[in-house]
Amino acid sequence: MGVVWLLCVVAAWALARVLDGLSLGEATAQSLGLPIGPLRAALVAVLALATGTAVAQTGLIAFVGLAAPHLVRALVKVPHRQLMWLASAMGAVLLGGADLLARWLIAPQELPVGVLTAVLGGLYLLWLMHRSGGALGGRGA
After folding, report:
1. Which domain holds residue 124?
2. What is the pLDDT of residue 140?
3. How far is 49 from 55, CA to CA, in rounded Å?
4. Is residue 18 within 8 Å of 11, Cβ to Cβ?
5. Does residue 111 share a domain with residue 73?
6. What is the dihedral of CA 78, 76, 89, 107, to 10 degrees?
7. Same-domain pairing of 83 and 15
8. Are residues 71 and 138 in the same domain?
9. What average pLDDT does the segment 13-32 reach?
10. In terms of pTM, does the model score above 0.70?
């Protein structure tokens, strides 16, 4: 898993400027000379490889990978190069906290950490969608 993680981090680091360009909008990214189609395919491939490897190694720990970047963006405004590292650290903190909470909630039994992350992450993402007007990242009321 470490080798695949390292490959994905290097690829994501190389594509970080592309993500910054895409976050400005598709028209702006095209005007900057970014080949949108091939870059999106590369981003999806890196994401699929990283996600598939993580799930195969650790099992389904739902929503941590989705909630961590949104939490980091809510706390700090940084370019994607820094966001990558901060979101990884936030994911580790979230999962560590969820594991501790899962062990403590119904002690001496242990609640599956995937259940806890799904509930907490799902509630957070629902709140995030409500706040943004119904679509993640959208500009709503």
Report:
1. 60-141
2. 45
3. 10
4. no
5. yes
6. -160
7. no
8. yes
9. 85
10. no
Calculate mean pLDDT across residues 122-127. Answer: 82
Residues 39 and 91 in one domain: no
Q: Provide the token pair at 101.
A: 């909470």
Q: What is the pLDDT of residues 30-46, one digit of tens each?
A: 888 888 888 888 888 88
DSSP string, 49-62: HHHHHHHHHH---T
Residues 127, 6: Cα–Cα separation, whole Å: 33
Q: Are residues 1 and 48 in the same domain?
A: yes
Number of domains in the chain: 2
Per the document, the length of the chain is 141
Q: What CA–CA distances, in Å, run from 15 to 7, 46, 70?
A: 12, 10, 19
78 shares its domain with 140: yes
68-72 long-range contacts (CB < 8 A, ≥24 apart) are 68/94, 70/124, 70/125, 70/128, 70/136, 71/124
User: In the predicted model, what is the mean pLDDT of residues 107-122?
Assistant: 84
Asked if 65 and 39 sit in the same domain, the reply is no
